[in-house]
Amino acid sequence: MFSKILIANRGEVALRIIRACKELGIKTVAVYSQADAHSIHVRFADEAICIGGAQSQSSYLNIPSIISAAEITDVEAIHPGYGFLAEDAHFAEICASCNIKFIGPTPDNIRLMGDKMTAKETVRKAGLPVITGSRAVVKTKEEALRTAKEIKYPVIIKAAAGGGGKGMRVCHNDVRLISALLTAQSEAEAAFGNPDVYIEKYVDKPRHVEFQILGDESGHILHLGERDCTIQRRHQKLIEESPSPALDSKLRKRMGELAVKGAKSVGYVNAGTIEFLLDENNNFYFMEMNTRIQVEHPVTEMVTGIDLIKEQLRIASGQRLSYKQEDIVHKGASIECRIYAEDPENDFRPSPGRIATYHIPGGPGVRFDTHIYSGCEISPYYDSMIGKLITYGNSRLEAIKVMQRSLDELIIEPIKTTIGFHKRVLNDPAFLRGIFSTDFVEKLFEKRE
Ligand code: MV4
Known about the structure:
- By secondary structure, this protein is α+β, with helices and mostly antiparallel strands.
- The protein folds into 3 domains: 4-103, 3-Layer(aba) Sandwich (Rossmann fold); 132-201, 2-Layer Sandwich (Dna Ligase, domain 1), CATH 3.30.1490; 207-448, 2-Layer Sandwich (D-amino Acid Aminotransferase, Chain A, domain 1), CATH 3.30.470.20.
- The protein contains 15 helices and 22 strands.
- The chain has helices at 11-24, 40-44, 63-73, 89-97, 107-114, 116-125, 141-151, 174-192, 249-264, 297-304, 308-316, 396-409, 419-425, 429-433, 440-448, and strands at residues 4-7, 27-33, 47-52, 77-79, 101-102, 155-159, 169-171, 197-201, 207-215, 221-233, 236-242, 270-278, 284-290, 333-340, 342-343, 349-350, 353-354, 357-359, 366-370, 377-378, 385-393, 411-413.
- Helix 7 (141-151) crosses helix 8.
- The model has no long low-confidence stretch (mean pLDDT 97).
- It binds ligand MV4.
- Residues 131, 156, 164-165, 200-203, 206, 208, 232, 235, 275, 277, 287-288, 438 line the site of ligand MV4.
């Protein structure tokens, strides 16, 4: 195992990684921006180095600064967390060339899955179901019209370098398709430096169901079951849970086996996630693979008892997975509510500022992963997620009950947060029944108006 690593991240995930390292006896080096000098990850790491200004570009995305910090402190490895440099194949390559282990997938894994069309084509050849559409980049309006005629409207235009919903356009007719093609291409160019787009049949009112994958460096790959992340707003996830209320054991087994097959087809190493869209008739399709640990990983940890960050560290240090697929036991149910410093009454506008009063929920089945403390300042420079409230119960209903009372116990003042929004969702009949699709949040807001 490593003796010392650097954490190239901030916030709750930096703290999450420090916790895993402490339990494994690994020394930690925190890096921080000038805006984060008083952050908890700086305080709890064994060493800390300031790597630049408040803007992410000059600090958490500043590769030369991070590599210098790693060399000065003589670490063996870097954990990128999620966001920032976690899915930057170039950064993973630079780490390797500096003899620093990147705690994550290989640069090739990241690059291949980062190209959404190549990813789709690769897993399709491995036998995974994919949504019908263009098999190559759509360059001209003639190509777009031909594809739409073949697969029929509605269709969706997606950026090849995109993912996470950025730069997508739904079209219902030829006129819209032609104008959307141009805007999608220029949006893709502006956002990703690559104008390539492709077209798919649009699936209406789907669910988002994703499978957690672990692969070791000896080629053993298994899955740790699914997370349902259907409750989102503008591609920002708000609530995740495991197991998915939409799957039965037969469907879960089939999807899990195919997720493993997809990961095997690219020789996947470390933690990753295969995303599926599930339609109203329980047809499912591969969407994309996320080549990082995800924000919502705790719900998987709660139902499997496996610490995913420790597994990432073990895998990166060359250890083999110590269990087989049959050994993974799923028990109970877990839900995560993401707490954002945002105002749900005001289009979820960020609400940075100082937290004066703060009370953490507790009791059986409660976990709160956060970097906030009384008196801390929520900076406007970074993502507005300030914590994740995670609950566990023997059944979905129990996990919901624990969540409801935990949300009542959670006090974060005076900034605006999503706590009240979550209370509403947790009382919604459709949510309680477990029957909902990606338009859930929109409908929830319509109901009150
Ligand atoms: C789709 C889709 C419908 N049809 N693709 C959004 C995120 C990205 N991973 C893929 N996304 C979608 N792709 C086809 N062919 C609908 C979405 C989508 C969505 C997916 C999962 C969860 C929430 C969503 C919200 C809007 C759109």
